[in-house]
Structures are given as structure tokens and as C-alpha cells.
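Tutorial, part two.
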Amino acid sequence: MMKELLEQYAQKKEAIKERLRDFKRVWQGDERDIFAELCFCICTPQSKAVYCDRAVSGLAESGALFSGSREDIREGLKAVRFPNNKAGYIFETRERLTREGNIRIKERIDEKDIKATRDWLVRNIKGIGYKEASHFLRNIGFGRDLAILDVHIIKNMLRYGLVDERPVCISRKCYFELEKKLEGFSRSIDIPMDELDILFWSAQTGTIFK
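Running the prediction step on this input gives:
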């Protein structure tokens, strides 16, 4: 299995690295693009990522994501599960991050301590847990040391013997323990965690997405 994984990595390595460069460009761009990425991650729990991406992209294009009412946002989330709750989370997050009429999210990201930033996001942004906060930070270029413990990653942790059984629920302590195990595995095969996440995702879905 390990040989197969390394062969897949060799085949997809450049495409994976290019995707990560795309994420870094989001950070170098507009505050609204970074906010949209956060909204995407708010939408992802129990929903297909591709549907969430389409919904948030549509809301961004219409402007509702940045200035619409809670109801306007809700209308754009029809393909996303729990649209009422998630529209509320997005609306409240926008209000929290807006200063003098502008969304200000970069100032909340500590590039020198991304794990502290992740803690801040979990404590202060509704609808965001450690998985979603890690996903968001990876999607803006800061995921090298973070694990996105979604179903695809847990399935692969089982496959490669990093865990004996699927966790029923993931507390903060459990999340960090699993992340440490994945980090050790990442180092042992010399594939950075952000690249490993995309590799596992592409093996499960057949695509390199986000």
C-alpha cells in the first residue's frame, strides 16, 4: 500500500503543488476572497464540497455574500445542508469581521502562529470546529502543519494503520492526538501534510479540489 501511495504522489505531485500555490494566491489577494473561503468552510459540514463552492461563488458574484441580508444568503445556500443555520453563521461572521464598512480578516491571521489562529477561529467563529478551521487555513496557504480530519483522512488513517478504529466523535484533545499521528506519518514518508491531504482526497474522489 505504501508503495502505491508514493507512486500516486509522484504522479500527482506537481498538480498538488500548483493547487497549493493557488491557495497561497488567495491570501495575497483581496480580503473578500479570503472571507469567501471562510464561508465555504462554514458550509462544508455534512455537505458536498463542490456544492458549497458553487453556492458561495454564486453569493460572491451577486454581492449577497458581502452585503446581503441573512435571507439573501439563505437563498443562495439551497444546495447546502442546514442552510438556515449556515446563513446565520455567515451573516454573523461578516458582522464580526467588518470594520468601517470593510471586511477585515487578514489582521486576525497570525502567520507566525497558525495553530493559535486556528484556536481563535474555533472560539470566535460560529459553525467552525478544528476541522473547518484547519481547512480554511489550508485553503489560504497555511496548512502545512495542520490536519483536516474529515471522513477521507480518517478513512486513510485507518487504511495505513494510524488508528485502530474510526473515532465516534473528535474532541479537542482527540483532534490534536490524531493530528500528531498524521504529522508523524507525513514526516515518515516525506510528504507535507497539506500535500498529503490533497493526495488522500484525490485518491477518494478522483479530483484535486479544495
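Residues 62 and 68 are 9 Å apart (CA to CA). In part three we will examine how such features are distributed along the chain.
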